Each structure stands twice: as C-alpha cells, then as structure tokens.
Amino acid sequence: MVSAIYVHVPFCKSKCAYCDFESHAGKLCFADDYITAVLSEAKERMDEYKISSVPSVYVGGGTPSLLSKEQLQRLIYGIREIFPIEADCEFSMEMNPGTVNVEKMEAVKKAGVNRVSFGAQAYQEELLKMLGRIHTWAQAKEAVYLAKDSGINNINIDLMYALPMQTEEDVRESVKQASMLPITHISMYSLILEEGTRMHERVKNGELTEADDETAIRMHRAAMEEAEKRCLMRYEISNYAHEGMECRHNICYWTRGNYLGLGCAAHSLMNERRFSNPGFHDYMKGAKCTEESEIGLLEAMEESVMLETRMVRGLDLTGFSERYGRSYAEKIMKAAAFLERGGLLRISGGKLSLTDAGLDVQNAVVGKLIEAL
Amino acid sequence: MAESKQKRIRNFCIIAHIDHGKSTLADRLLEKTGVMALRDMTDQILDSMELERERGITIKSKAVRMPYKAEDGEMYELNLIDTPGHVDFTYEVSRALAACEGAILIVDASQGIEAQTLANVYLALDHDLEILPVINKIDLPSAQPDVVKKEIEDEIGLDTEGCPLVSAKQGIGIEDVLREVVSRVPPPDGDVSAPLQALIFDSYYDNYRGAISSVRVKQGSVKVGDRIRMMAGEREFDVTEVGAFTPNGYFPTERLSAGDVGYIAASIKDIADIRVGDTITNAMRPADAPLPGYKPVLPMVYCGIYPADGADYESLKDALERLRLNDASLSFEPETSVALGYGFRCGFLGLLHMEIIQERLEREFDLDLVTTAPSVVYHVKRTDGELLSIDNPTNLPPVNEIEFMEEPYVDAHVISPAEYVGAIMDLCQEKRGTFKDMKYIDGGRVALSYDLPLNEVIYDFFDTLKSRTRGYASFDYELKGYIESDLVKLDMLLNGEMCDALSIIVHRDRAYARGRSIAEKLKDAIPRQLFEIPIQAAIGGKIIARETVKALRKDVLAKCYGGDITRKKKLLEKQKEGKKRMRQVGSVEVPSEAFMAVLKMD
Fold first, then answer.
1. The complex's ipTM?
2. Are B438 and B497 contacting, i.e. CB atoms less than 8 angstroms apart?
3. Interface of A with B in 290-319 (CB under 8 A)
C-alpha cells in the first residue's frame, strides 16, 4: 500500500504563547531515546502494513530543527532505511529560524530533505515577542537564504493573522516581506485561542484583545491579495503556493490518503482506520496507540466533504460518486444548490468548490452539505 | 347507631390566600391527631407532588381522615379536604367545598385579608359552609392579630369571638383549631337508609385500583360488591373497594355511609368514565335524581406544545394522557404546525396551570418541549353569519371574511400597598384596562378593580405587576365576558416565509409595539446563518417591523494539526447536536428557544 509518513518531534526551546500542541521545552536530553523509539515504532508499523511506496514524508513538531545534526541524520536515514521512499518523494521538515545553521541545513539536505517550512509568523518584532517566538524576522529571512543556499528550493513560511495588537497593515506587510523571499509556499493561519495557553489567559484577563470576525476577515483578504500579487495562489483555506508547489503531504490529509504518524501524539489514517499515539511520557514508556476507530461509510463521506472542500479545487464529485455511490453525490449536489445560489460555492467540471466567501464559513457550509447525506 | 356515627363526623376544608400557611396548618392537624407520627413528617405532607412542595402550592384537592379524641371523651372522625389556593384552581376549591359542612378560613396575621381570601369566602358561603376564621403566623414580629380580627369582622362579617390564634409553623394553638372544628362545624346529615347518592369531587388514577373517585356520600351507603351507576355518565360498575384516605394512602373500610368522605374503586379502566360533579348511585336501587353538579370547567388559555425532537411525539402524547388522568381540567388535541411539526393544542385554566403542566411534562416525563405563545379563545363572527371560537391564531379566517371579533375580558382585582397605586394604574392602562373602582382597605393598602382583556393578562401582566410593585401586589381575576374588539393577526416572517407558530392575535393599537418587540427578540434568539435573514412582522400583507440577522462571517478551522482531524470532527458533531434543537422554517433554522423567547417580557 501507498502511504505518507508523518514523524512528530515534540521538543521545543520554549513553548509559544498560543501553542497547545504536543511540544515540550527542556526535554531535549531525551532526544536520542526518542529517536530510537520512533525508529522502532517505524519498523513495527512497516511490518504490519507492508507499505509499498511512500510519496511524502513530513517531519513536524515541536521543533525538529532543535535536534543536533547527528540526531537529525540518524532520524532521517533511519526512516529512509525502513520505508520504500519514492525517488521524487516530497520530504518536508519544519524548522524554527532561531535553531538553524549551515551545517544542519546541509546535513538534512544531503539526507534527503527537499522541502523546509519555517515558522516566521509575523514581520513585526513586537508581535513575535507577544507570540513568545524565539527568533526575529531577520533570522527568519536569514534561514530562508540558508536553505536556498543549501540547495533546498521548496520553502514554506508560516504566518499568522487575527492576532491581538495586529493591524491589517501589519498582516499586509508580513505577507509582502515573506513573498519577496525566495519561497514557494505560505501557510497563513488565523490565530485559534486555545484554552490553557498563555495567550488565552492574557485575553481572558483583558491584557490582550482578540480580533473580531470582521477584522479577521479583512486581514485575511489583505493577506490573500498581497500573496496572489506574487503568484502565491490560495489552494486551501490557509495555504498559498506557486503553481505546482502545493504541499503534497497536506493534500494527502485532505483527500483521505493513507498516512502513518510516528512519534508521540501522532495521528494516522490507515485502511479506513484512524488511530493516534499516546503523549510524550506514555510514548517513552512504550505505550501503543490509544484510540482506534473503524470509519463507517457515512463517517467517511462526511470526512471527505469536510476535508476536500478545504481545498480551492474543491470536492471531487466524480471520485466521491465512485467511492460512495451516485445517490450520495446527488444528495450533496441537491443540498449544494441553494448554497450555490447564495454565492458560497460553485459546481463545475465535476468539482464542488467553495468560493472565498464560502471558505470563510466552511464549517457551516459543510454542516449544510452533510446534513443531506 | 348510624346516626350517632354521623354525629361524630366533621367534614371540613381549609381555605386561604396563597402562602397564608394552609399546607402547614394541615400538617400540624395531622400531627396533632396522630395520623402522622412526628418522625414520618416531611413538610407539607398533603402536597405530595414534587412540584407542589417546591413551589409551595397545592394543585390537587386531597381528602384525609383523622381520628380525634375530643374533650367530651368521644372519638370523632375529622375529614380534612386540602384545597389549592391559586386563582387558576378555583374549580378545585369549589368541588372540595361541596363535600364539606365547614371551612377553616386562614388569614395571615400580618397580611390580613387578600384577594383570594375573599374569593374563597364567597365560594364557601355559596355552599352554605360554616366558616371558622383562624389567624395564622402570630409568631411573626409584624403580626397584628387584633387589626386582622377587626378586618375579618368588618369586611367579611364573621364573628371572631374565640377565633384561634395560631402559629402553624411553631405548633401554637393547634388544639384550639381542632376544638373549634368539633364544636362549630355541623355534623353531616343525610339518610343512611335512602338510595345511594355520592358526589364525585375528584378523581385519580391508581395503577392497581384503576380510576378511583373521591366522593362525599350524601345519602345511603355503598360497600364492596355493590353495582353502582354513574348518573350522568350512565355507565355501571361493580365496587371493588371503598375506604378513606390517610396520608399514608388508601385505608379500605367495609362501607361508606351518608356523611362519609372517601373513595370508591370499581375497576374503572378509563378515567373519562368518572366525571367530577357526577353522582354515583346504586344500580339496583337508584336515587330519583342526581345531586346538583358543577359547571364543567372551560379552559381559558391555550397554547401549542410540541416535542423539541419530533421523534418524541408519541412520548408527549403518552405523557399528556397520563397527566390528564389526574387532571381532568387539562384538555388537548393533536395539531400540526408547518414550523413545529406534530404536537398538541392544550387548554389550561390559567397561566399557572399552563406552567405547571409544562414543568411536569419536562420533569416527570423528561421531555424537551417547544411551546407557542399562549392564546385566549376569541369569538369571530364571519360575514356569512357563522360564529367561530378561535383558540389558535392560525385558524383565524382571512380579514375580509370577518365581520367582527370579540375577546374575553376579566374582572381583575389588585391589592397592593398604596405607594404602588400609580405604577399599577399605569400598567393597567398600558394593558388596555378600564378602571372600575379603588378603595383603601387598611394599613395603607388599596384594592383596585379593573376590566382587563384576558389576552393582555396572559402575556406578561403578572410578571410586570410583580416587578413594578416589588412583589407586594396580589392579583386575582375571573372571567367577565366577551367584548367586541379591534383585533388583528400579527404574523412573523422569516426570510419572507410566514412562521405559523409565531402568529398571535393582538389588539390593533398594540400590534406595532408587539411586532417590533417580537422581531427584536427573534433577532437575538436566532443564531447567525449562512445568509442574512430578514425578520418581519406583518399584519395582513403589510410589514410593520423589520430586523435582520446578519450572515455568518467567519466559521472555519484554520489549521490541520498534522493529520489530527479530531477537532474538526468534534465540531461537526457539536453542529449536528445543535441542529437537533433547530426547527426549519423555510430556509431558516430556528432554535426551539426562539419560540419561547417571544413570550418573555421586556
């Protein structure tokens, strides 16, 4: 079977103010043991699933670039040894601009990484500080050139909008600055205030003010405009890329391809089963995946609608009809009719695609569509 | 022998304004006569319904037998019939009174005579009852027993000589009350050997015994095995059990004779076979004529009750049927609404009755309900001469087919401290009331009389009155009659489509204000959706108010979390749960709460 691979590296120098992801500061001393555990999990899974071909590998975190050169090499070569990686595999790695240097960059490039993703977040220093980032914009810029110079040509930058204190102009400037760098891809995430984060706490205390919906939408429009000026075209709710440089790994998530998650808290979808690994401590103690659920037909259809409509190209109605049956595709089309009249989506060429207005309210649109199933 | 037994029976009830301590006094009497051991006492023994205890009100009449050894050394049989105090349940009171020879009238030592005190006294006098005034709550610092005594003498004309001064709460003066009952309430009469005449004053449903009648035997006697006939209902049954009620339940006896209060069970399956007010006689040896009965009670207020989840229709039906077993005054029939689907049009005696039924349905049957705005019964004369009674605005004929309409008016009595007179008059004015009379009672209190349209009373009159008088005013009303009135049907349109469940009938002068206020409330109650939703209030085809629910602007999860889609799925599940509580009106999703939000006062 064909499957993408995700590897989670949970270590961070410090926890960002908005982050509620599985990441730990000050645990780097466990990195060697952790890599050993990941590689042994990889072997087990390989034996279990007999994966025949891997079109994409994504090393995410946390901060994978916090690992030492040697650790990174052991991890990447280990993965390449265990799985049949395709020759033109998209091999991505997330990096924090504050943790990179020439040696690391050249080492990972040599090991096979051909796409890097930098969390730059914003151009304005005061916003970076508020977010609790450990780097400056100048470092982000430097990191991009470092990658480029090492021969990595496929480069993403993560940016955030709808931040407290941020103005529409700030967003525009960030996108502009990012798009002038030699990059191929921008991920632009609207801040989600997660309970239990420092940011959430500060908003609750009234120290910071959350952006309202109208502001967030204006910021997003501005960002999109700025990105598309430089041919970074929106292809998913939060993602922009030069033509042909869309992230293969993410598209695998949105089209419900198989993906195997390795490492703590990693999620997998394999043969219509979803499961996820335990958190760092249990994972290190050798605990196996905690949740496992078989996906029924209705659930699979709902997932398809929910995930595929995130992409600008939209839900592939032909494929949907082939997988789940014509009658369901027709139900979706019927429910879509009034949404189309309202300008929230378009149906043409066998695709159901949400308009910009529709993408702003994708949850509600999906709700309406799956109601019909 | 039979006659000497009669001499030692006392049938009496307790009447009082709400909250003057009726149930507490009943508790003390039960305790004093030893019917309930102290350790078994919970407060307000007779209010066995959870709701009755919680709200501190009595909803159903109940009869209890208490043996009592009087000062003369004789054993007496005291039958206490507890009655509700609220205006909505006057019919229950009136039935209970027909079973008695005397009534204890409780008056609060600090509040004095209240609206309901008077209403109940008149009811008791109508039934020729001996009235024993009792002044309660004498333990309160604000108690003025002498002032209240004088009030009773002046306003009701009752002798207060020897009137017991009581604190039911602290158990003071209870013995005096029992002594007064024995010495002043006349024993029942009635020929034990005459043909049976037993007046049904209430009915209950018991899972083991079937439908049972609470009766007062006026003459003759009845025992197990007798064949009885319902004189009006014309059905016959074989008696399986007779007896008296105790707080612990049924106490079977050999027979019930003239003068007795008790129950008759006769394997009656259908509660409808027992009509309250009917006379039971012996089928083999029937009485010549039935006893005078009661007027059948007519519902005053109607509303639609729908299950929040359409799948619960059968459970709702079942629940209503079960409630009706013990509450003959509840009426309901199936109706359908475009917006709400299948439900029931229910008739109630008043607003409190309506609330209580709704609460019992939700609590005792665990149902989630959607209720529509309460409506009164309007009379419509059509241009073709036909007369209609309309209890649901949806059924109102088109304007051009209506010659005129009439709406019910009530005689309303408000008693309040004088300082709130201005506020009350303003309120009654706003509610289209006509001033009739005002008099100062005593201690700075004023009694106001108004003619008020019932449809204003059922809207938010009571709540507003309470809030404007900081809870001091008491309110009571009785139906006065129908008056021609300039009424219109106010419709609500959601995204251009009429929502039948939101239509109301309202006076033309009030239509604009109500239309605006409902539109505003709907705007707050309906969540933002994918498209903008115009909310309009209309009379006929004319739009009189408009609000807009703006379209949803942002509802999207930005991030993918490395293939972890659980958050997205949880969101979808939450969305689905939410949709279950939504009603589809055209293309608009309306939450169940919205239908009730329009009932709330401003």
1. 0.87
2. no
3. 302-303, 306-307
